[in-house]
Amino acid sequence: MAKSALDRIRRAAGRAIGDFHLISAGDRIAVGISGGKDSLALMVVLQELRRRAPIPYQLVGVTIDPGFSGFPAAAIAAFFKARGWQLQVEKTDIRLILEAKLRPGSSPCSFCARLRRGILYTAAQHLGCNKVALGHHLDDFIETLLLNQFYSGTLAAMSPRMLADNGRQTVIRPLFYVAEEEIRRLVEEQELPLFENPCPARIEDQKRQRIKALVAELQKEIPFIRESLANSLRNVQPRHLADERLSGEKLDRVF
Question: Which CATH number fits domain 5-141+154-198: 3.40.50.720, 3.40.50.620, 1.20.1250.20, 3.40.50.920?
Answer without folding.
Answer: 3.40.50.620
